[in-house]
Amino acid sequence: MNAAIDLPRLLVYGTGLGLGIWVGYFIRRYIENKLRKSAEEQAQQILIAANARAEELKKEKLLEGREILQSEREELEQEIAKERLRVQEIEHQVLRREEFLDKREAELRGRDNDLNRRADRMRADEQKLHDDHSKLTKDLEHVSHLTAQEARDLLVEKMTAEAKLEAAKTVKKIESEAKRIAERKAQTIVTTAIQRLAADVTQENTISVVTLPNDEMKGRIIGREGRNIREFEKLTGVDVIIDDTPETVVLSSFDPYRREVAKISLERLIEDGRIHPARIEEILKKVEEEMQARLLEIGEKALFELGVTDVPEDEIRMIGRLHFRTSYGQNVLEHSKEVAYLASMMAAEVGANVKMVRRIGILHDIGKVLTQEAEGPHALIGAEFAARHGESGPVVNGIAAHHGECEATTVESVLIAAADAISASRPGARQENVESYIKRLESLEQIATEFPSVEKAYAIQAGREIRAILRSEQVTDQQMEEIARSMAQKIEKTIDYPGQIKVICIRESRVIEYAR
Question: In this structure, are 354 and 443 located in the same domain?
Fold first, then answer.
C-alpha cells in the first residue's frame, strides 16, 4: 500500500525536477545570450571610440608634422638667404681684390719702366766714371812718376803699419779688461739669471672664504645641535668659522691642500642643498678623487712649462702636491720652478747640462710632501723617493745635496744648491715683517747719510741697492771709490740681510746759465 502511494509522488517529483531543469536551462541560455549581446555592443562601442581617437591622433600628428616641416623649411630658407648674402659679399671682395691687383700691376709696370730708365742712366754714368778714372790715373802717374801698382803698394804698407799699432793698443786694452771681467764672471752669471727670471712670488694665506647664497644656509651648515659642522671638521681637518659676517663662511687651516678640498666640498654641498653627515662624507670622497686628477694635471703642466719629460706618474702627482705646500709663505711648486729656471740659466752660462738641472730643480723639494710619511731631512727623503722611481744618480745627488746633507758630486748639484739659496733668500720671495723691512731701509739710508760728503741717500730695489748723492765740491773722483768701499764695509758690520746690497755713489757737477 505504501509503495503504491509513493509511486505517484515520485512521478510528480521527477516530473517537477525535470521541468525545473528544463526551465533553468532555458533561463541560463537567455541570460548568456543577453550578456553576450551586451559585451558585443560594448566591444563595438570601444572599437568605434578607438577608431575615432586614432583618427584624431593621426590628424594631430599630421598637423604637427606639417608645422615642423614648415619651421624647418623657414630655417632652411633663412640659411640659404644668409649663404647667398655671404656669397655676394665674397664676390664683392673678389671684385675689389681684382681691381686692387689690376691697379697694383699697373703701378708695378710703371715702376719697372722707371727702374729700367734709371739703370740705363747709371750704366752711362758708370762708363763715364770709368773713363774719368782712367784719365786721372794716367795724369797722376805722369805727375808722380809712379805707376798705379807702386802707389797701391806704398798705401798698403802705410795702412799695415797703422793697423799693427792700433792692434797692439787694442790687445793691451782687452787684456786689462779681461782681468776685471774674470773677477766678476761668477757674480754676473748669478745676477743675469735672477734678472732674466724676474718672477713674482705669491704669498699664501691660511684661510679661504666661501660665499653663501643667503644667511639661512649657515644654520643648515651647522645642523641640528651642530652635528653637520662637527662631522665636516672631523672629516676635512679644517676649522669652519661662522660669525656675523653676512653670507660668508671662513675655512681656516695651515694645510692648503686640506683647505682646498674643504672649500670645494662645502661649495658642492651648498649647491646641492642636502647637508647631512652621510652626504658630507659622500661629497668629500668625490672631491678627493677629483683632487687626485687635479694633482696630475698641475704636475703635468709644470713639467710641460719646464720641458721635462719621462717622469713617472707618482712623481707627477707629488709635484702637483707641491702646489698645496708653502715654506715661510712661499709656494713650494713656484719655488721649485724658479730654482729650475735659475739653475738652467746658470748652467747655460757655464756649459753644464741644462735639461738635467731643470729636472733636479723641479724635483729637489719633493721630499717636503713626504715628511709626514718618513723621518729625516726632506732632501734625503726626496732623494730616496726619486731613487725608488728610477731617477739617475746625478739627479738623486742633486736632490740630496741641495741643503748640504751630502756632498755634491756634479756641477749640476752645485748649481741647484746655489739656485735654491737665491730663490729662498732673494728679497720678496718669502714673508718678512713689514716693520723690520722698513727699519732696514731706514738703517741703510741712515748709514749712508752719516758720511759728511753725502748729500742725499736713497734705498731702492727692496733694500738691495743704496744710492748716495755726493757733494761734488767736497769729493773728487778718486775719493768716491774709498767712500763706496767704506760704506759697504759699514753696512756689512751693522745690518743683517740676505744676498747682497749694491752701493752706488754718484758725483756730478752742473753749470747753469741763461741766455737772455
Answer: no
